[in-house]
Amino acid sequence: MKSEPSVYSIKDLQRDGKTAWEGVRNYQARNFMRDSMRVGDLVLFYHSNADPSGVAGVAKIASRAYPDAAAFDRESRYFDERSTPEKPLWVLVEVAFVAAFKEILPLEKIKQAKELEGIMVAKRGMRLSIQPVSEAHFKYICRLAGCRMPGNEA
DNA sequence: GCCAACGTTGGC
DNA sequence: GCCAACGTTGGC
Asked: Within 7 A of a protein CB, which nucleotides of strand B?
């Protein structure tokens, strides 16, 4: 899951413990939240538009998808008049902090790693803010980042 | 700040 | 349903 650190960083999540991932306004990204995410699923937290851009840590899904109330709020930058409480168009999931990498694992490193061949985030023009990651890729990224995780002590 | 790539919108 | 115009994303 991508976030611009100037808006919301892994440190912000560490401080908050948990956050509602509001503001996703892309159908494909929404569908991943709604259809594929389950409580307990692990997430790579990616800093976009950053220096450097890359994976900043690990989070986990803390709720199933439910309507994103920001879409109903005229004052919100995420307001969308097509979405109503009766017929919500956009959803969010809650995301909980797991770990912050000591150092960002830069996109450049991800592109260089043979083991990560085919990973979505490395593809040209890939700007989807929520992307599926294979278990093998996930583990390898954690290893590259030197992150110790339950079930992934390597 | 530039700009390529992409998604969305809306005229036809 | 096509596709040009537009707005946004995000690496650099």
From this structure: 4-8
